[in-house]
Amino acid sequence: MKQEADENLDPATEAKVWPCASHRSHTTIAKYAQYQASSFQESLKEEQDRIAAGAPKTDDSKKKKTPKTIKFGTNVDLSDEKKWRPQLQELMKLPAFARVVSAGNMLSHVGHPILGMNTVQLYMKVPGSRTPGHQENNNFCSININIGPGDCEWFGVPDAYWGVIANMCEKNRTNYLHGSWWPDLQELYDENVPVYRFHQKPGDMVWVNSGCVHWVQAVGWCNNIAWNVGPLTARQYTLALERFEWNKLHSFKSIVPLVHLSWNLARNIKVSDPKLFETIKGCLMRSFRQVCLSLDFVKQCGLQTKFHGRTRTDASHYCGICEIEVFNVLFVKEQERRHVVHCIDCARRQAPRLEGFVVLEEYHLNDLCQVYDNFVLHSVQGQTLPGQVPTPPPSSCTPTPLT
Ligand SMILES: [Zn+2]
């Protein structure tokens, strides 16, 4: 529904509310482009007709009219390197910190595509198209370039205030993680939440820092491209990990497989920042402990794990029931002729002694031990640029077919 940037009205009652109404549908780039162009032509014609009739230029904000339903072409996938080669090559001219792929970007160490995060997405907009309030997946940073021709208006709140906004979401009958909401600015000011508000002109690149809560509205007709990046800093890693844990508590899927990523970081990069090092090492330690306890439990149940291995580009696994990331020890059960991966908790809920489950292992315990031990703090003197020389995967990690 098209609305003023300052407010979000309930379509039925016209009261100021936080929840945003929208319906989902699918279309093609060409069809949306047609809609976008005809919406522009229509608006141009309306304006010309008004001028011809001798009426002054209309000011939308002073005019009462019935709200119009508009369409927003979100999350158009530009990951196919064959289809979009010239466009993607153009983006490689950006400075390293903003590039889709770079050694200093944590998301380049995931080893597989996460659509829209380490690949590019396109957003095609008509005036009023809204991206409701959110933080990026697992608090990663994002890069957003407005291709134009129109402007976008941005609203941003620093990470430190996300909890205040989450509480305000509940008060306004929506949910911070699962809901779709457009904050009321006055309510934010009343709670002393600072809001940055600015226009993104064509050609402007917006950097959304780790954890920044933001919401965006198109002022004119425009297309934007966006992706995520993860600078190798203690702050980024910590915020990502904290959100990973928070998501678990609130049954919200973490799009970034942070455990898998942490092991890859340990393999690939040299860390000289003590805080970043300690935080990654701590995560590896807890992950290793979880692996050992899981394997012990499998043994106690009288089962044998099968070595499954994995290739470097295999996607990470998520529990088919609760969507938590499952690392290294996979509890697999055939359901409706599909092999479904379970986390240990969901597996035990179904079968306390794992009856009917096949347990697969992705890495040998020795390999994980080695990665853990070899991951040490590097002194700044002997420092090489992080991630410049990726180490090869452990030799025993050759894949075997799923049995
Ligand atoms: Zn589960």
From TrEMBL:
Among the GO biological process terms of this entry, one is: regulation of gene expression
On the tree of life, the source organism's domain of life is: Eukaryota
Q: Name one Pfam family in it.
A: KDM6_GATAL
Which reactions fall under this protein's catalytic activity?
N(6),N(6),N(6)-trimethyl-L-lysyl(27)-[histone H3] + 2 2-oxoglutarate + 2 O2 = N(6)-methyl-L-lysyl(27)-[histone H3] + 2 formaldehyde + 2 succinate + 2 CO2
Enzyme class, one word? oxidoreductase
Needed co-factor(s): Fe(2+)
**EC annotation?**
1.14.11.68
Q: What is this protein called?
A: [histone H3]-trimethyl-L-lysine(27) demethylase
Looking up SMART domains in the UniProt record yields: JmjC
Q: Which residues form the JmjC domain?
A: 83-246
**Which PANTHER family is this protein grouped with?**
LD02225P, LYSINE-SPECIFIC DEMETHYLASE
- Gene Ontology CC annotation, any one: MLL3/4 complex
What coarse category fits the chief subcellular location reported for this protein?
nucleus
Q: Which InterPro entries match?
A: Corepressor-Demethylase (IPR051630), JmjC_dom (IPR003347), KDM6_GATAL_sf (IPR046941), KDM6A_B-like_C-hel (IPR048562), KDM6A_B-like_GATAL (IPR048560)
Subcellular location as annotated? Nucleus
What is a GO molecular function of this protein?
Answer: metal ion binding
Q: Where is this region: Disordered?
A: 44-68
Keyword vocabulary terms for this entry: Chromatin regulator, Dioxygenase, Iron, Metal-binding, Nucleus, Oxidoreductase, Phosphoprotein, Zinc
Q: Which family does it belong to?
A: Belongs to the UTX family.
